[in-house]
Amino acid sequence: MPPQPVSPTARIGLWRRCFNWLCYSIFWGWNLGSLLLIYLGLFPLVGIALLLAMGEDIFNLELLLTFLLLLVVPVASTLWALRRGNHQPGRLMQLFLVWRHR
User: Fold this and answer.
1) Whether 68 contacts 51, CB under 8 Å
2) CA-CA-CA-CA torsion for 92, 97, 98, 100, nearest 10 degrees?
């Protein structure tokens, strides 16, 4: 028997799956990298010293706010993606690009 030709809808489905996989990989890879970098790299080095400086009343408010944003943004985007955006890869990429370009 000769091979059956692949229908155009099957090709679109393959490209859609590849696009979805790429979106998921970029978003979750970036989030995992951010979480690991911040909570295993930055927080032990800067965060503990910042907390000790707060106890001695020697700290910079802008540095504290920046540090808190660095802690909150990856967690917030991960929680949002787990609750609402996990089945919408296009929305995950929109969220990734918004956080990345601000």
Assistant:
1) no
2) 120
**What does the alpha-carbon distance between residue 97 and residue 72 come to, in Å, rounded to a whole number?**
17
Predicted local confidence at residue 91, as pLDDT = 78
Q: Which residues contact 76 (CB under 8 A, 6 or more apart)?
A: none
Q: Tell me if 26 sits within 8 A of 97, measured CB to CB.
A: no
* Contact (CB, 8 A) for 91 and 85: yes
Q: How many CB atoms are closer than 10 A to CB 75?
A: 14
Contact between 102 and 62 under an 8 Å Cβ cutoff? The reply is no
pLDDT digits (tens, 9 = 90+) for 44-60: 888 788 778 777 777 67
